[in-house]
Design brief:
The protein is of the alpha/beta class. Helices cover 45% and strands 18% of the residues. It has helices spanning 27-33, 88-100, 110-117, 123-134, 138-148, 151-175, 180-216, 230-238, 281-294, 358-368, 371-375, 385-406, 411-429, 435-443; strands at residues 5-8, 17-23, 35-36, 47-55, 58-68, 79-85, 104-105, 218-224, 256-262, 265-271, 299-305, 324-330, 347-349. The strands form two sheets. A seven-stranded mixed beta sheet has the order 3-4-5-6-2-1-7. Helix 4 packs antiparallel against helix 5 (138-148), helix 7 (180-216) packs antiparallel against helix 12 (385-406) and helix 12 runs antiparallel to helix 13 (411-429). The longest helix is centred in the middle third of the chain and has 37 residues, at 180-216.
């Protein structure tokens, strides 16, 4: 990280302004070479200066220059930001001048990567930067902001500290093996301590899995027999004519997709081909796709025509395992006497055609995913699969340590699992990491961030 990097931090195109960001040891001196105005090497940190960018004696653009000196910057290096007029040619010309003077074009996410490597932020906070940029709902933004400000990092660090205290007690036991009573006391202390940590981690895992739903959305499949109103329901929830609707059974033969925000939950919805036996080869492929996607879903909206109900209509429910399901009785505006006393899933009665019950369906979805409960919580938990997977591994190591202490195994056996749990927690916040992981993570960032 000895070189000085540069990137355009705003979207490239026509706009009011563009921001060109420079970070590194020579950031101030390089920008100073192409700037007409105050001598930037002599100005105070965190100040803004008016002037022109020039190429030799030719003015390129009228600009505002922000100078921020290390270590009180995002990267903990000297940073200069050039606010120029928006426009492709002007912005690219300034970039070209900076590269000719000695800057290197930054890789995706390199500014944030330098902030991490220089100790300005930890790995969770770095990941939160991209989460804020990609947030689609207010809850998404709140989750990311809490992660960026270090709330969840503090919880992880606190857990690591508790494990360190347990490890310290083990070291005392190992140093004084002649005291059997001390060893017994250590095992009792470990049992209680590990149990407390496990409870805290279990809570974070549960909340984090809810958080993933808030962040990534819910894979939602509309399932049912042909002509029960699946495409009409999709169109109603999306509030657009996304899927073709006819009275002919089997119209939908491929997967039709769309996203909708329901009370802060993002539903990635898929309308599927009606499930039935058919001699039509194309429709048969669609049915097979429907069954495959059913297994990938987080939520299944199982639609039944209440005006033409047969017991066989619910046979497919027996194939659905470990999924959240809402059974929807459509066409209640027509005459029907359907009874589903044996169904254990939530049941909602609607008429897509008449617009009846759609709000009730939305409320049931929110209820099913504890959305109201989530909104009342302190949204400080993990929001990506990498971190949650590491936390679960740490939990498993602690369970192994707990079993060792319960069975009065030698404390140095327990110590191995405790150290593993401590190390895994460190990987979540970046206290320990592999270079390949860091390169992969930051390569997913946008340029200039």
């Amino acid at each position: 990280m000895e070189d000085t990097i540069v990137a355009i931090s705003t979207a490239l195109g026509v706009g009011a302004i563009s921001i060109v960001r420079v970070s590194g040891t020579d950031a101030i001196s390089i920008v100073n070479e192409i700037f007409t105005g105050k001598d930037l090497s002599k100005v105070e940190s965190h100040t803004v200066h008016y002037g022109f960018i020039k190429e030799e004696n030719k003015k390129i653009d009228e600009v505002l220059i922000t100078v921020m000196k290390s270590p009180k910057t995002f990267t903990r290096e000297d940073i200069v930001e050039i606010n120029c007029h928006g426009g492709i040619m002007t912005t690219k010309k300034i970039m070209e001048l900076l590269i000719r003077k000695g800057c290197r074009v930054a890789e995706p996410g390199e500014f944030t990567k330098r902030a991490f490597l220089n100790g300005r932020i930890d790995l969770l906070e770095a990941e939160a930067v991209m989460d804020i940029i990609e947030a689609k709902t207010e809850n998404n933004a709140t989750l990311a902001l809490n992660q960026l400000t270090g709330s969840i990092s503090n919880k992880i660090e606190s857990l690591r500290q508790e494990i360190i205290e347990l490890l310290a007690s083990i070291e005392v036991s190992i140093d004084y093996p002649e005291y059997d009573e001390a060893n017994q006391a250590t095992n009792e202390y470990l049992k209680t301590g590990i149990e407390n940590i496990l409870e805290k981690i279990k809570k974070i895992i549960k909340n984090s899995e809810d958080g993933i739903i808030l962040k990534n959305g819910i894979k939602t499949v509309i399932l049912g027999k042909p002509n029960v109103g699946k495409s009409s329901l999709l169109n109603s929830l999306l509030e657009e004519e996304k899927a073709i609707v006819t009275s002919i059974p089997g119209t939908t033969r491929d997967i039709v997709e769309g996203s909708v925000n329901i009370g802060g939950l993002i539903l990635d919805m898929m309308d599927t081909a009606g499930i039935r036996e058919t001699d039509d080869k194309i429709e048969e492929i669609g049915v097979q796709k429907s069954l495959e996607i059913m297994n990938q879903a987080d939520l299944i909206l199982y639609l039944v025509d209440s005006s033409n109900y047969q017991k066989e209509d619910l046979d497919l429910l027996n194939k659905i395992k470990d999924k959240k399901v809402i059974v929807i009785l459509n066409k209640i505006d027509l005459k029907n006497d359907i009874s589903l006393d044996n169904v254990s899933y939530p049941i909602v009665k609607i008429s897509v055609k008449e617009g009846i019950g759609i709000d009730n369906l939305k409320e049931e979805i929110i209820k099913l995913f504890n959305q109201n409960k989530l909104e009342t919580k302190d949204l400080t938990y993990l929001t990506n699969a990498r971190s949650i997977a590491l936390l679960k591994k740490s939990y498993d190591s602690l369970l192994s340590a707990q079993n060792s202490s319960i069975n009065n195994m030698p404390v140095d056996i327990t110590e191995i699992d405790l150290k593993e749990a401590w190390n895994l927690l460190g990987m979540i916040i970046g206290k320990t990491y592999e270079d390949e992981l860091i390169d992969q993570l930051f390569s997913q960032f946008c340029l200039g961030k």
